[in-house]
TrEMBL record:
It comes from Bremerella alba. This is Carboxypeptidase regulatory-like domain-containing protein.
């Protein structure tokens, strides 16, 4: 007499259960975000590249990051609340060279240090539930 192992017949149910747990675990329940847009300037000139990071003062929330567009604007989705904001802009490096290779030059910050440090940034804003424009003047 040949018997079949029952663990193979329950396999589809295990896959369904694991998949349901994985999908339910993605994202946080009730985490509505707010759209923030604006321009980034340094010494009254629009930045044409770089990174903007909104870091919630509430340690239980994750920071949000976006790139600055060529026209000096940014758009980002952030959790409502108080945020410290940093902006980073570095010299460009040769994409064909890796650190340690001959000719590689480490990128250097093109902005004052206080704008790239959460501990020193003077940029702090409160974001509500409605979309808002926040221009970053460095």
């Amino acid at each position: 007499m040949i018997t079949h192992s029952s663990h193979f017949t329950s396999f589809p149910y295990v896959v369904l259960l694991v998949g349901s747990v994985f999908i339910a675990g993605c994202g946080e329940a009730g985490t509505a975000t707010t759209t923030v847009t604006g321009k980034v300037t340094h010494k009254d000139k629009l930045l044409e590249r770089g990174v903007v990071l909104f870091s919630p003062v509430d340690a239980n929330s994750s920071p949000s990051r976006t790139n600055i567009d060529a026209d000096g604007t940014y758009q980002i989705e952030v959790m409502p609340g108080q945020h410290k904001v940093i902006v980073k802009l570095f010299t460009e490096t040769d994409p064909n060279l890796e650190p340690g290779e001959p000719g590689y030059v480490a990128p250097k910050s093109l902005l004052p240090i206080q704008y790239s440090s959460l501990a020193r940034t003077p940029l702090e804003f409160t974001v509500g539930d409605e979309p808002v424009e926040i221009n970053l003047e460095l």
